[in-house]
Amino acid sequence: MAYYDNNEHESRIVAVQNILHQKNLDFALIYYDEYNLGNGWYLTAWCPQFESGTVLVPARGKPMILGGPESEPFAKQDSAVKETRNLPVFMVPDEEYPNATIITFADLFREISAGGIRRVGLVGADQMPVSVYTGIREEFRGVEFVDITDEFLRLRYIKSDWERAQMRKAFALADLAYDAMAAQVKPGNYEYQVAAAGEAAARMQGASGFAFQTIVGSGPRSNAVVPTALDRRMESGELVMLGISPRYKGYSGCFGHTLPVSGAYTPAQEECLKHMKEVMRLTRAMLVPGKCGKEIHAVGRAYFEKHGYLPYLVCPFAHTTGIMEAEAPFFGPNSIDVVEPGMTINVDVSFFGHPEFHGLRVETGYEITDKGPVPLSPKMDKILLGD
């Protein structure tokens, strides 16, 4: 079994090649690694471990993965791209592989330049290690480099039917994780017990991994954007922030919620959470085609200001989700990106640094249609908003 669909893979390669033709480019080099995996995964449905890599897409012909010998057998088995080359800059430093075939960028350049290479597009150059970037610049002699990161990212903005189907499954896994985690929220339990319950529930039903480390932050530990679970016992009267992002076939689901450790909110906690849910409701209503990021953000920001939460606002209220739980475009206060049908967007309402409640979050995702947002998790939409 693999994480990719052949038709999806082929259409994405063609889309990149169309960019190359439009910009008169001979090749594209798309960098990725375990922490910046979105662009490479989009083309391969695979990511190297320990090592890093680059997808080489020619204007005509088949792509190849540039990586290291530790990942090579894994790539040939599981990736949508089977052709590979090993280069030192992608390998674990000082590791030796006596039987591996290792080449340099100069060797690669000679191999692929038979038809002449004049212009090469780069995706993710700002994420490349210095050794990778300088190796490309120095050994691809006489070549003009053009950054096409923005054009490439726009391919990922609108999700296909297949992508949205995987995301609905990922959000269903997040629903299972929520139930398991909520059941472990009680005085005396450790934060890591809550995280373990959620991760196990998602894994047992097919999660391939997680887009971020599971969030469990109780009491003052909720005062962080992503407080990962520690060996802290939860205490009665506290709130605990929860969040998890299971991946299904590489695509992320998610939920975010803040629960009372004792099982019941105090009146003050309930009032605070009511305000956060109202901002979520207002933001959800703005997720219609044609609205731009700063318009979406302004509604929630005005509500925060009216009710005294503006000093604790850290993150915008909406962001696109897909391979990465949070990926471009981000709909913040200066964003002119426009909502379009086919996008998948998380409404993520939070604050941090509050003197009484520390940090609080509510979050779930929506598929954008011509008529507006449709929940990727009807269950979590109902839990958070009661609809």
Could you explain the architecture of this structure?
It is a single chain. The chain has 387 residues and is an alpha+beta fold. The chain folds into two domains: 6-157, 3-Layer(aba) Sandwich (Creatine Amidinohydrolase, Chain A, domain 1); 161-385, Creatinase/methionine aminopeptidase superfamily (Creatine Amidinohydrolase), CATH 3.90.230.10. The chain has helices at 6-22, 38-44, 72-78, 105-112, 130-139, 149-157, 161-183, 191-204, 267-285, 293-306, 378-385, and strands spanning 27-32, 53-58, 64-67, 84-86, 119-123, 144-147, 209-210, 215-218, 239-244, 246-248, 251-252, 255-260, 318-320, 327-330, 344-354, 358-369, 372-375. It has a six-stranded mixed sheet. A five-stranded antiparallel sheet has the order 14-13-15-16-17. Helix 9 (267-285) runs antiparallel to helix 10 (293-306). The chain is globular. The two termini are 38 Å apart.
Radius of gyration, in angstroms, nearest whole number: 23 Å
Biggest sheet descriptor: 6 strands, mixed
Remind me, CATH topology of the largest domain? Creatine Amidinohydrolase
Number of helices: 11
- Structurally, how many domains make up the residues? 2
CATH architecture of the largest domain: Alpha-Beta Complex
CATH-wise, what's the superfamily of the largest domain? Creatinase/methionine aminopeptidase superfamily
Q: Strands across the major sheet, in which order? A: 4-3-2-1-5-6
Residue ranges: pLDDT <50 for 5 or more in a row? Answer: none
